[in-house]
Design goal:
single chain; mainly alpha; minor pseudopilin epsh fold; 2 domains; 11 helices; 3 strands; globular; binds manganese (III) ion
Length: 273
């Protein structure tokens, strides 16, 4: 690996590990204090490949019914307890006996070229699915617990700088919805940050902005907001009306979490605070 490449990967790993720490917030501080394993603190939430070679499926931080009527309980239950669980189980199968023990999911998917070729597709799809969904659940909140509304502070300023406005014509919401609508088949729409500068992009299947551009289709950076546009995420309630699901999503976006993730991409010293 060249020095420049190595520096890039080291920086990238520091940033991605920090994003996981910020997502989990105070839980991590408790985990750090009590963890007997010596693993990174967010291991308690399943984002580190444990010494037994296993990721775990964390409980949602709210009930399956909590995002009603915007996202229905049956969809949430199937999505989390079956789809996400399958990604966890299959990622564990693929990574069993490999050298990645103790690494975060974000770090492993950022180094797919280092994964043995016969396991690479399984790791890309299933570990990608695990990290994407782990973040997705935390990027939403019930409206009575802070979901919806609009961002403020530095995040609002960055959005205006990048897209002209939050909700105006041609602004952030319209462009993000367009990215979600135009992703053909299954995938994700993302708001990503590089050093605080924001872009909107989308990935296919379970590819992630944490992956290198060759895998992410050029949608790279630290994801701070993601929307699952697989049919399993909306079909029970919205049928083929993906745009209606995207419209409903704005009612449950956890902007406080998005803002913390954004801050961490500007100032890594904020990591873990
Ligand atoms: Mn999904």
């Amino acid at each position: 690996m060249s020095t420049a490449r190595h520096d890039f990967m080291t920086r990238r790993r520091a940033i991605t590990a920090g994003a996981a720490a910020v997502l989990l917030g105070p839980t991590l501080a408790r985990a750090r204090a009590s963890s007997p394993t010596g693993l990174a603190p967010w291991s308690e939430a399943g984002l580190v490949l444990g010494r037994r070679g296993e990721f775990t499926l964390a409980d949602l931080p709210y009930a399956y019914t909590a995002l009603e009527p915007f996202i229905d309980a049956e969809t949430m239950e199937i999505h989390h307890s079956r789809h996400h669980k399958a990604y966890v189980d299959n990622a564990n199968k693929a990574l069993a006996g490999t050298e990645f023990t103790g690494m975060t999911s974000e770090r492993i998917i950022a180094m797919l070229d280092d994964v043995p070729s016969e396991k690479r597709a399984a790791v890309r799809n299933n570990l990608g699915g695990h990290i994407n969904h782990s973040m997705f659940w935390l990027m939403m909140a019930p409206p009575e617990k802070g979901g919806g509304g609009e961002p403020d502070g530095a995040l609002a300023d960055a959005i205006t700088r990048a897209f002209g406005s939050f909700g105006g014509p041609g602004g952030f919401k319209e462009r993000f919805a367009q990215a979600a609508a135009s992703r053909f088949g299954s995938g994700w729409a993302w708001l990503v940050s590089e050093g605080g500068a924001l872009t909107i992009c989308s990935t296919a299947n379970q590819d992630s902005p944490y992956m290198t551009p060759a895998y992410s289709g050029g949608c790279s950076g630290t994801p701070i907001l993601g929307l699952d546009v697989w049919e399993h995420a909306y079909y029970l309630k919205y049928r083929n009306r993906r745009a209606d699901y995207v419209g409903a999503f704005w009612n449950v976006v956890n902007w406080a979490t998005v803002a913390r993730l954004h801050t961490a991409t500007i100032d890594p010293a904020e990591i873990g605070k």
